[in-house]
Q: What sequence folds into this?
């Protein structure tokens, strides 16, 4: 991995240390260029100059193929979405639910993969069963299997929860689900671009993800994978010209026989072009190298943070189960004060609830601070951040 080049490609890093990719990553310049070049041309050529439009639609199709290849799918199984939440909703609201259907998820889900299911339940369409996790934050596949019964229709799980950083055993979960003929939706919003993903190997039915985090794509980008055999079962939530065909003989419409059927109108072209450039960028570095580097940085960050007096680090104790996300609190300092002080020193991390209700209750806390280093971060940046927290303790903390 050519870190020097990577950091050159990320202009922000001349001034800031940005250690908050779990929220969103600064995109590399290549992603910004892909979007701005297009926007500039819409101004200078007009967006519907025929040759230009044709070229752009060809590119959009190429990017669909690229995204498919990136996760081991075929082009027809990929839809673009505005974000991870929208992609999840396309499945929640697109499947036809039968009376008595049950959906299982764990208490570690981010709201975007929880509230849409709660709404379905409140409408009487499904029964939601919530698996309790322990402090390890890792789903027990045995416990999960015990919850499956003949009414179980779907299991959904976040590959990497945003608050704990506990990487979930998604392959085993999909295997158990298949054994019981249960559908699976993987929320890969925190792993796309971070962990090698092959949907065929994973054997999941649906996978939703946003582009703005570990893939370093633009905000307003996301993807949805729908297993080919299931495309016809997904009724588009939004409909329009993008996902339908019109039969001029019968004057009737039908949905496209591909995942694109959920894309109702004009594609969000700048975001798709940015997403394509982000896939190219991740490919050029190599997804396995990205994963290994972030794993190393995670371990290093945990080690460094552990030297801070009065620190509590949350999430999996076994480093093997943790990736990229390290939540913590320091006795005598609020998480907001820590982030504020680091920001004053040009280091960006985040504090909040991260909507992690269960985790907050397990540790009896209201909020936490969170480091989430990506491959472009350096050990020196982590050390500097940790030293600054120690300085803050000396200035303001009470041990
Ligand atoms: C685990 C997880 N799932 C889903 C989402 C939602 O993604 P988006 O903000 O792109 O809708 C997030 C965003 O923070 C997330 O962390």
A:
């Amino acid at each position: 991995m050519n870190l020097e080049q990577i950091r050159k490609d990320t202009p922000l890093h001349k001034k800031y240390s940005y250690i908050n990719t779990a929220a969103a990553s600064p995109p590399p310049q290549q992603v910004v260029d892909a979007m701005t070049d297009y926007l500039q041309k819409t101004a200078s050529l007009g967006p519907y100059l025929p040759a230009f439009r044709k070229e752009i639609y060809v590119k959009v199709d190429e990017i669909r193929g690229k995204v498919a290849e990136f996760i081991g799918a075929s082009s027809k199984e990929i839809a673009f979405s505005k974000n991870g939440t929208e992609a999840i909703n396309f499945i929640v609201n697109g499947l036809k639910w039968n009376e008595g259907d049950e959906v299982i998820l764990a208490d570690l889900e981010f709201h975007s993969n929880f509230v849409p299911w709660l709404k379905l339940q409140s409408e009487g369409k499904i029964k939601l069963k919530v698996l309790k996790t322990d402090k390890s934050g890792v789903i027990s596949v045995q416990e999960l299997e015990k919850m499956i019964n003949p009414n179980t229709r779907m299991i959904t799980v976040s590959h990497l929860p945003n608050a704990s950083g506990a990487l979930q055993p998604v392959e085993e979960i999909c295997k158990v689900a298949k054994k019981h003929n249960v559908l699976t939706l993987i929320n890969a919003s925190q792993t796309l671009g971070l962990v090698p993903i092959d949907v065929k190997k994973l054997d999941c039915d649906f996978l939703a993800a946003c582009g703005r985090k570990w893939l370093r794509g633009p905000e307003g980008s996301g993807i949805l994978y729908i297993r080919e055999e299931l495309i016809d079962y997904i009724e588009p939530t939004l409909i329009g010209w993008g996902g339908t065909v019109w039969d001029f003989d019968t004057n009737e419409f039908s949905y496209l026989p591909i995942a694109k059927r959920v894309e109702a109108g004009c594609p969000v072209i700048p975001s798709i072009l940015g997403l394509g450039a982000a896939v190219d960028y991740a490919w050029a570095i190599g997804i396995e190298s990205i994963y290994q580097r972030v794993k190393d940085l995670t371990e290093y960050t945990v080690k460094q943070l552990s030297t801070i007096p009065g620190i509590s680090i949350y999430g999996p104790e076994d480093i093997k189960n943790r990736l990229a996300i390290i939540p913590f609190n320091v006795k005598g300092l609020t998480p907001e004060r820590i982030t504020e002080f680091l920001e004053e020193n040009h280091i960006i991390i985040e504090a909040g609830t991260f909507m992690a209700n269960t985790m907050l209750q397990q540790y009896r806390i209201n909020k936490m601070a969170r480091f989430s280093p990506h491959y472009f971060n350096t050990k020196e940046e982590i050390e500097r951040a940790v030293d600054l927290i120690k300085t803050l303790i000396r200035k303001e903390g009470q041990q």
User: Anything to note?
Assistant: The two ends are 41 Å apart (CA to CA).
